[in-house]
Design a protein that fits this description.
The chain is an alpha/beta fold. The radius of gyration is 18 Å and the shape is globular. Helix 2 packs across helix 3. It has a single domain (about 1-115, about 170-240), classed as Rossmann fold, CATH 3.40.50. The strands form 2 sheets. It has a 6-stranded parallel β-sheet, sandwiched between helices. Helices cover about 35% and strands about 15% of the residues.
Length: about 240
Amino acid sequence: MVMQAPLSLLCLPCAGASAAMYLRWRRFLPPWVRVVPVELPGRGARMGEAFVEDFEALVARICSEQAEAMRGDFAIFGHSMGALLAHGVARRLQASRRPLPRALLESGCAAPSRRDPARFDGGEDDASLIAELRKQGGTPEEVFASDELMRITLDTLRADRRVCRSHVDNTAGASSPPLPLPVHAFAGRHDDIEPSAMAAWSKETAGVFTLDWFDGGHFFLRQHEAGFLAALARHLPTQTHLHAH
């Protein structure tokens, strides 16, 4: 009997969010995909821990904490800030000669070489952050209605903006060689990321590159969840093995 070999899919959250944003996916992705929602320090089940506000330090933490999940076949997905972290993790694994993911799946984030470093300057007062959350459209209404949930979200978002600000792209200088693995990018047609900034993910890989567009804004993956997850599953690397009875 031919069976699909299992694949661990590590999922990194966007700024201000926790790993809970990926729990639903377990019901919708194929049974051979093991969804691994990665909880970052300072949120969700790790609320009691201090935030890690430096990009490289956070990437190093993910690489060490998720070492077990990155054994065997695995792929890494990230949305927005999570996409940047996913790329950082793949680069760190490459630099330390550790096994690489079978694929990198990058959603709702400009390629590292096309990021605007000034985007996260200023605007860290509550009112500015709330306006940003409203504009992006991914925050449930009950969060805005609850002072406690709003405070948790704003504290997390503030820490994550520092993570994004501390990201330094080195593609212009002594850059790493392109990643020897497929990169699949996903974007919303009404997001404010330039199409060329999404297409620039192609420069990060020496392998296959794809770019899928969806209707919707920054959170197209929620607005069109079924279509998005179908596309995601289609791009996951498949590898069958024979199972003898």
